[in-house]
Design brief:
single chain; alpha+beta; 8-stranded antiparallel barrel; 6-stranded antiparallel sheet; 21% helix
């Protein structure tokens, strides 16, 4: 009797396991690269690979775009990532498309950081399975910051078949929208640093754009007795000019947040003297004949902690 009961109790689980379909990779052809081009938003991911877990906990927003490279079967990738309270822009990576084995290889500074297969799904979804690690994993990106309930259920079903529970899934936050106050900045390009020095106050407001894959950015800057307003619908990244900007909901940031920003800046090759902080204190100085402002608090001299950027968008 007990044996029969145990068998019956185990039957639903066995049936559920049998109903799981294996991940079906996309076989690459001439339509693969055109399908990948354009902007994507990272939505969710699950992994049992420890470095991935640390990255997924830190990422609250990521948008990335693929564009044609000068080499055949290679794509440029521009990424905008919010790691906790720090925004990072990166455009040094490449995606190599291998037609013969239908894989995508993420190369950053000539180092292979990940190898992934594209899993069959809707044309507006990007489901990736990283195969260069011996741990179950799956990530979901989409053309828009939000996906339909049906598409999310499809992704969750794949995760369940890989043995993941709901508690093991990490989702990006929708809290990016709204008003953000400019609290610190660092730049290598002299003109950008001069602009940071001249700013008295600044904030930006992020709102949904006209289409689902755009964010409208309204930027408000005060310099002396002048106020400037600028509306942006896209961000342009210039190669070879490292920059890092921090915005926060509150004008004052904690010591831990300040130290985190300084570590990120150092790992991007930015020197402490290239960091400009808010709140601002006006001083008399001459930079090309213009009035300048300098930060009230000098940056600390802490060692670099390697900036880990996620590879979920490849």
């Amino acid at each position: 009797m007990l044996a029969t009961l145990a068998l019956l109790l185990g039957l639903p689980l066995a049936l559920a396991t049998q109903s799981c379909s294996p991940l079906v990779p996309v076989t690459f052809d001439s339509s693969t690269i055109p399908r990948l081009l354009g902007q994507w938003f990272y939505i969710a991911a699950a992994s049992r690979y420890p470095p991935h877990l640390a990255e997924m906990r830190a990422v609250t927003f990521e948008a990335f775009s693929f564009s044609p490279s000068s080499h055949e079967d290679e794509l440029n990738i521009n990424e905008i990532i919010r790691l906790n309270e720090t925004c990072v822009v990166r455009n040094s990576s490449k995606i190599q498309v291998f037609q013969q084995n239908s894989t995508l290889v993420h190369v950053d500074n000539n180092d292979v950081t990940s190898v992934a297969r594209l899993i069959q799904s809707d044309k507006d979804l990007l489901i990736l399975n990283h195969i260069n690690i011996d741990f179950p994993n799956l990530s979901l990106s989409a053309r828009t910051p939000n996906v339909s309930k049906e598409h999310m259920e499809e992704f969750k079903a794949l995760l369940q078949c890989l043995g993941f529970t709901e508690d093991e899934v990490f989702y990006t936050s929708t809290e990016l929208l709204g008003t953000w106050l400019y609290v610190a900045g660092a730049a290598q390009f002299p003109q950008h640093r001069l602009e940071m020095l001249l700013i008295d106050r600044a904030f930006l407001r992020l709102e949904p754009g006209a289409s689902g894959n755009e964010l409208l950015i309204s930027h408000y800057v005060a310099v002396g007795d002048q106020c400037f307003t600028h509306n942006l619908t896209y961000l342009e990244v210039t190669v070879g000019s490292a920059a890092l900007v921090k915005h926060a909901r509150n004008p004052r940031i904690s010591t831990a947040e300040r130290e985190e920003f300084e570590q990120h800046a150092e790992c991007l090759g930015l020197r402490p003297e290239q960091i400009v902080y808010a709140p601002w204190k006006t001083v008399q100085d001459t930079l090309g004949g213009a009035r300048a402002t300098k930060a009230t608090t000098a940056p600390s001299q802490q060692g670099c902690k390697t900036l880990q950027l996620p590879n979920w968008g490849l």
